[in-house]
Lysine 2,3-aminomutase
Amino acid sequence: MPDGSLPSPRPLRDADALAAAGLVPPAALPALREVAARYAVSVTPAMAALIDPADPADPIAAQYVPHPAELETTPQELADPIADHPHTPVKGVVHRYPDRALLKPLLACPVYCRFCFRREQVGPAGGVLSEAELDAALDWFEAHPAVREAILTGGDPLMLSPRRLRHILARLSALPHLDIIRLHTRVPVADPGRVTEAMAEALESEKAVFLCLHANHAREFTGEARAALRRLSRAGVALLGQAVLLRGVNDTAESLEALLRTMLAHRVKPYYLHQLDRAPGTARFEVPIAEGRALLASLRGRVTGLAWPTYALDLPQGQGKAPIGPDFAERAEGGWQVRGPLGGGHFQADATPG
Ligand code: SF4
């Protein structure tokens, strides 16, 4: 910790534990106890160690430490902002797109992000599918040959034991129609010690396995996180990155560039930059779309194209994820006016039919 004291060996799971660790002022306790009674709290030792308690704008604290503003819900905020519920054919499965479906084996996470779009569902109670429920969910995948990709999410699937993960991957790997197994997780940065050799080995499969790492700030990539990602990469897992555009965390060209470059330096290919989903009590994090587009546009040409994520908004009625990133081409009379990322532009006339 910046003051030299040792980080807590256990996650900090309530307002009083955060105060005892010096991460919130005692005066804030009454309001924060109320927040913690409503939305789950957990700050892992790895993340607590990164927080500078002397910095009221610390970008790591902003993501994990509860704030009294969470008690205010705006009229635009929804309990289920991306409409998982209407697309749930059996418990633990969300089927929104024809060729892929989510499998949510549990609803626990290593940390509870203050901007989480599933904050009304996730928590330490776990929502773990029973053996019978998990089997029914896996049977659903077996019975749907049009589904080519299983996306394990939650909660965080890397909170499962290697034994249980191995069982799920074995069942999915045996489905001839399935090409891809994808896992969405925060664990390699938030609790890297969970990524043991046994866990990496549990993720080995004949299928293409993609791990989509959720991280929002360059500082989250510690030495332990690097080792965890290396272990996963050695097991043949392809690494993708997703971040949420967050006010006070990654909303400057410098912080966003640092995040995307740091992902790449850890073998993590930036995949999505999400516009904030309007979950209850999260308004303080929202960056207007126009600002997000300008931020990304400012990186184009200056930062390797490998770092470029798809900036996307999940539509609130569950109609899918729409790309909302900056445009470089505009339709003009007889062709396209294309803006140059390094300056200038070019008119590309329509091809004349040969
Ligand atoms: S890790 Fe993901 S699901 Fe869990 S609290 Fe954070 S955003 Fe929500």
Q: What stands out?
A: The pocket of iron/sulfur cluster is lined by residues 109, 112-113, 116, 118, 122, 154-156, 186, 214 (CB under 6 Å). The longest strand covers residues 208-214.
